[in-house]
Specification:
Structural class: mainly alpha
Largest sheet: none
Mean pLDDT: 75
Distance between the termini: 8 Å
Shape: elongated
């Protein structure tokens, strides 16, 4: 992979990690607030874990759908336009 594409990919990963950190923290904190009543002691945490997973997956799906194509590595863009990639 050309160095330019590696740099673009590294930048995307850095931005994604920063965005995901906030998303994950907000989601987990929200679900933890729902545990204050103590019912989870009898029912367990698996429903809470599934809800956290579902919320994060939905948010990432929406974010992916909204992501502009211009942030994808150059060869992918060229292939998607019918041009040969490198």
């Amino acid at each position: 992979m050309p160095k330019r594409n590696m740099d673009v990919l590294a930048n995307i990963m850095r931005i994604s990690k920063t965005d995901m950190k906030g998303l994950i923290k907000t989601t987990v904190e929200s679900e933890l607030r729902n545990l204050r009543n103590g019912n989870w002691i009898e029912t367990g945490l698996s429903a809470t874990e599934k809800q956290i997973e579902k919320t994060i997956n939905e948010a990432l799906t929406v974010k992916y759908i909204k992501m502009p194509c211009g942030v994808l590595p150059d060869p992918f863009i060229r292939r998607s336009r019918g041009q040969p990639g490198s």
